[in-house]
């Protein structure tokens, strides 16, 4: 939380350009005083604030005392990259390489110190890692659950070097996010106290979306796929990136420049110097800045969020044996005053996911309609044939077929010949034949009467 190291800025006197930069970093209330901007050190100050922060902040090489990855001691310079944020210089772990994260010009600080075998990889939540991977790469996947397979760091705040704090005390701020996201620390940072061991037990939440929802308007589904909206400065769409670009456009329109921590969305855009920061702070205090633009910044349809549970306990204050050799060799007063130990690890080996899908698709609509019709109307597929017959075939038959064919009924019956037993006597065979002949004549007479009745004669 130290905004500037005391040994580096104590030499600056009141009235200098550097002293004005310190007033901006340490006293945000100065912008409420209209007389301050008329002072000479503010009025004509062309100092680049980002360069001032990089030159006077505590570097990661002094902040990070020791690092472990999966219980193996690792050089911290191989894990962390220095980045400039809205609250000064920070140390970032497992983020995308800048060439995969940005489209435009970006400010490059000290790069990761690694051998040729550690290769940066392009990654995003929708497609994940490439098919072919080198033996060693970053962003790194997790190796498992628990502290032993997580990341552990020991930090030194150097309280004696504090000139001013971004908060109300000394310590550190931690922000957890996706490797493709670059959030604002002032909005989502979690404070870590000194003289304590803090465990961040992380649960990952995956949000997925079915391709079927692409047919739904964005305002209704309230999410955006990566290939649906292209940003100007960032390669990958996130809600934070979209809002940052909206804020940059708003500040360029009102002040003609952008703060050092926002994206450069225009090639000819410039960073604000000290003299223009009064306009920036005044514009940010307006009601709903860039509201129309930010209303179009929906969450990604496929996204990974991290929900940490932080637990802190005090470090050793008495002379008993502890596991860390570094803490054992440090004076207890030094540990309580300057040191913080942080562990990052996953709680479970599975990820809870939620799927956004069409609530009622064509299949669901068809099944629901058929179920309701079948329940209340006795409707079935046979009913479809009946509807087709009575609404289509019967009218055609009525108007196309001649009337004389429609009013006559032809009934044909096929009767099997009676079986004759070989053992019957001749008079028995004659009796059966006579009975069959009489039955046939009776049936013919009934058929004739039926035909006359149908034709309307009788």
TrEMBL record:
The keyword Transmembrane applies. Residues 441-452 have a biased composition (Basic and acidic residues). Its main location: membrane. Keywords: Ion channel, Ion transport, Membrane, Sodium, Sodium channel, Sodium transport, Transmembrane, Transmembrane helix, Transport. This is Pickpocket protein 28-like. Residues 436-458 are annotated as: Disordered. It comes from Musca domestica. It is a multi-pass membrane protein. It is found in: Membrane.
């Amino acid at each position: 939380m130290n905004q500037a190291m005391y040994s580096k800025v104590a030499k600056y006197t009141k009235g200098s350009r550097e002293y004005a930069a310190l007033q901006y970093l340490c006293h945000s209330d100065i912008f409420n005083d209209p007389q301050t901007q008329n002072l000479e050190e503010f009025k004509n100050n062309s100092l680049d604030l980002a360069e001032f922060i990089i030159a006077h902040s505590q570097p990661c090489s002094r902040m990070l005392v020791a690092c472990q990855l999966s219980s193996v001691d690792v050089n911290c310079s191989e894990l962390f990259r220095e980045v400039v944020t809205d609250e000064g210089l920070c140390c970032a772990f497992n983020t995308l390489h800048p060439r995969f994260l940005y489209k435009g010009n970006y400010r490059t600080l000290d790069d990761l110190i690694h051998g040729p075998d550690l290769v940066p990889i392009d990654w995003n939540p929708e497609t994940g890692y490439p098919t072919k991977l080198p033996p060693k790469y970053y962003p790194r996947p997790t190796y498992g659950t628990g502290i032993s397979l997580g990341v552990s760091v020991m930090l030194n705040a150097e309280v004696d070097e504090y000139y001013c704090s971004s908060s109300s005390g000394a310590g550190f701020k931690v922000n957890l996010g996706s490797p493709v996201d670059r959030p604002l620390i002032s909005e989502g940072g979690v404070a870590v106290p000194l003289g304590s061991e803090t465990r961040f037990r992380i649960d990952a939440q995956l949000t997925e979306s079915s391709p079927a929802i692409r047919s739904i308007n964005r305002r209704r589904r309230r999410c955006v796929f990566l290939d649906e909206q292209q940003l100007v400065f960032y390669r990958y769409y996130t809600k934070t990136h979209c809002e940052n670009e909206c804020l940059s456009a708003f500040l360029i329109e009102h002040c003609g420049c952008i703060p050092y921590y926002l994206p450069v969305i225009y090639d000819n855009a410039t960073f604000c110097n000290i003299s223009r920061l009064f306009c920036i702070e005044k514009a940010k205090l307006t009601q709903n800045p860039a509201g129309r633009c930010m209303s179009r910044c929906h969450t990604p349809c496929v996204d990974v969020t991290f929900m940490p549970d932080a637990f802190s306990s005090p470090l050793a204050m008495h002379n008993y044996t502890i596991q860390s050799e570094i803490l054992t060799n440090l004076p207890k007063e030094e540990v309580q005053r300057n040191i913080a130990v942080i562990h990052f690890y996953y709680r479970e080996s599975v990820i809870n996911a939620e799927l956004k899908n069409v609530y009622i698709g064509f299949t669901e609509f068809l099944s629901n309609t058929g179920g309701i019709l079948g329940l209340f109307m006795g409707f079935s597929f046979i009913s479809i044939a009946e509807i087709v017959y009575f609404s289509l075939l019967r009218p055609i038959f009525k108007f196309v077929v001649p009337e004389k064919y429609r009013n006559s009924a032809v009934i044909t019956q096929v009767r099997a010949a009676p079986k004759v037993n070989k053992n019957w006597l001749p008079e028995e065979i004659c009796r059966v034949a006579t009975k069959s002949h009489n039955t046939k004549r009776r049936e013919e007479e009934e058929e004739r009467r039926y035909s006359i009745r149908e034709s309307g004669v009788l």
